[in-house]
Every structure is written in structure tokens, then in C-alpha cells.
Amino acid sequence: MNDPFESRFPQIKIEDYQQFVGPQVVERVRAKMEKLQDIHITNISSTYYGGGVAELLSSVTLLMNSSGISTGWRILQGTSDFFGVTKKMHNALQGSTINLTDRKTSLYEEVIYENALRNHIRHDFVIVHDPQPLPIIRHYKKNGPWIWRCHLDLSSPNPILWDYLRPFVEMYDAVIVSIPEYLQKLNTPQFCFMPAIDPFTLKNRQLSEQEIQERLNHYNIPTDLPLVVQISRFDKFKDPEGVIEAFEIARKQVDATLVLLGAPATDDPEGAQLYEDILERRSERIIIMSQDDTALVNALQQKASVVLQKSIKEGFGLTVSEAMWKGTPVIGGNVGGIRYQIENGVNGYLVSSINEAAMRIVEILKNPDLRHRLGKNARKTVQEKFLLIRLFEQYLDLFNSFETIYRTKSEVAFHTNPLDKK
Length: 422
Ligand code: UDP
Fold this sequence. Notes:
By secondary structure, the chain is α/β, with parallel strands linked by helices. The chain contains 16 helices and twelve strands. It is globular. The C terminus is likely disordered. The site of uridine-5'-diphosphate (UDP) has 18 residues, from helix 4, helix 11 and helix 12.
């Protein structure tokens, strides 16, 4: 039966990517979808909005479904003290210290248990995202492979926390991290999938000059001077204070307006405090906003003369590819996944200090030819490496690699890691 909503709200299909990647890639991906038409997948994560995981999941799950692969997405229901604990774990997995008390682990495990009681999961594949829902696996009898997808910078996890979490991680059949530096010593097969952006969303599609201006006017963002922008949750690892300092140094040589935008996320209770603290740095030319407005993100990324992502830890940093896709050069912290997106001096700049960031801001703002060249290369990089179809194909390859073994062994219940037997 025809779905009347499909004509009103046409869903993006894999064929829509042909304009960016050509017909051969689309055909190759289509062939890989075929064997997966009768499977059922679910994802579990901690929030529907705010942050890169939600951004990715909303696009990946829709593309899976429009490709005939039934894919759901469940959210943890957590209290604010639960998310307080998991945010500390998030920070500690990225290297901070943590006082891992029994109270914290007990609260963590209890909330996960309650979520497991509410969620009946018998899917062919289960993908669990990040540390928040990690232990949920222990409450189920597996009906197929379970995959833990960690989006964080795992280059130096806090050892006490990692010792506590590792037994949960090793219950999974595969682990996916973003880049090779995050691979761990584990008994579980590991894969590297870099995140990617959806070029068709309101966040990433081309806006008209009028649409851009309308959004900026709505928030009284002046465009008389070049815009320097960072769009990120207010999180110490994103270094918003460092951005302000770099901007203040740069402004001694070139006039501009700084916009720091950060929408809140339900699983990040520290954000509100950091936002409050930083507000006192606001001035006529330093605009600091906490708004959840997707079109504004797009308008700023498109209009900016330069985007900063001056992180000191960054799992991947979707905001980098988002801005690069719009042909805007990005100055990124020389860390984590940002290094895989920016090639220094070719499509943007990598920086390791506030002074270096300031110097690059000045260089880009003073030199329109340089800005144009970097921006052009930036767009090309994203087209070649960071569009969602690439990530989608990696998922299909992973699912298919399990399926082969699963299917040939047919009736046998799934207990071990099929990839071990390759
Ligand atoms: N984002 C947004 N509004 C904001 C700040 C961030 O929509 O005010 C989005 C941003 O566009 C990106 C995601 O949140 O899609 C952030 O992902 P990233 O990987 O950069 O960082 P994370 O928050 O996951 O650490």
C-alpha cells in the first residue's frame, strides 16, 4: 500500500547520494542492502537531541529504514543524578579523574536495570552507543550480535573507570570507535568508523542568502563585520574560554564578531553551569547564545568567515565537517577526530594553542583568497570522505560479515563472536 506521507515528506534514499558520489558507489551500496532486507535492528542511546550521537542517529536510522532495513532507536530514561554520573564517566573516558564510588556505580547500574526491564529487545542486531547504556547488555539473552559504538576520545581513558567498564564492553560481539588511536586492548573485535554528515538535512542543505539573513536578524547577530563562530555544547573539552581568548588577541589586528552557540543536551548536566560562567565574557562583539535552532547552526556555518572547533579532546567533531561542507574554513584543535578531517594548510588549520588559533584567525580574515582556497578544499574533503553514505556502507559491511556466518550456521543460537572465526 502506498504511504500517503511519503509524497508529502519524501524520505532520503540511497539513490539521492548519486549526485555526490556517482552511480557506481550507489549501485555497490544497493547490492549490500539486499541481504539485509528482513533483519531488525535497534539502537540504544541516551538522548534524542543535543550532540553528535543524536545527530548521527536521526539520519542513519531514517536512511536504514528508507533502504528497507527496519531500524529503531531507543532512549534511556535517566534521572538528572544518573546523567550527572554518566557525564563524569564521559569525562573520565576522555582522560579526566573520577571518584568512582559505590554510590555512583550502584545508581548507574540500577537505572540501566530499570531501563532493561522496560525495553524488550530481541533484535537481530543491537547497537549501544557510548557509556551511558553500556551495561544494559547483561540483562538480555542475545538474539544476534550486540555492538558497542563508542563516540568518545578513548585515547587515554581513566584506568580505574576503564577497569570497571571493560567487563561490560567485552560482553559485546564488536566494538566500533571513531579512529585507530581509540582502539583498546580487548577480547572483542574492534572497528573504526568515522562519523559522517547528512547533506540533506536542514542543518546541512544550502540556504539562500535571504534565509541566512532572516535567521541572523532574528537573533540580532550583526553582519557588518566578518563572523568568527564556534558551535558546540558548553563543555570544557570544547574550550569555549580558549576561543574567546584567541578571538580577543586576534581582534587587536582585525575587526570581527565572535558567536559562540551551544544548544543544551539532556545528557549533559554540566553544560548549563559552564554557559552561566562564560556569559560574563559577553560584549558587543562577543555573542554567547544557548539556543536549540538547527537553521541558525546552518546559517552561522554558512555565513562565517571562519569556524573554530578549538577542542582539547574531541571524539570526532561533526561540527568540523558540517562547516567544511559549507565551504567555510575551520580552525580546529589538533586532537582526536579533528585531525582526520582537517589537513593543515590545505583545507583548514590545526592548532595547539590559543596564540596559534589567534594567528590563524587573523591570517584567514585578512586573506580572502586563502579563505576561498581552504573552503573549496574543505567542501571537497567532505564530499569524498564524510558523507553519510560512506558510514552507511561500513555498517552494511559489518552487518553482512556477521550475517554470513550466522546464516550458514542457521538454527544455531548466537553466542560467540562470529568475527573471531573469520
Ligand atoms: N549542535 C547543534 N546546536 C548547537 C550546538 C551543536 O545543533 O547549538 C550540533 C552540531 O551541529 C553537531 C552536534 O550538535 O551536529 C555536535 O556534534 P559533535 O560531534 O561536534 O560534538 P559532541 O556534542 O557530540 O561532542
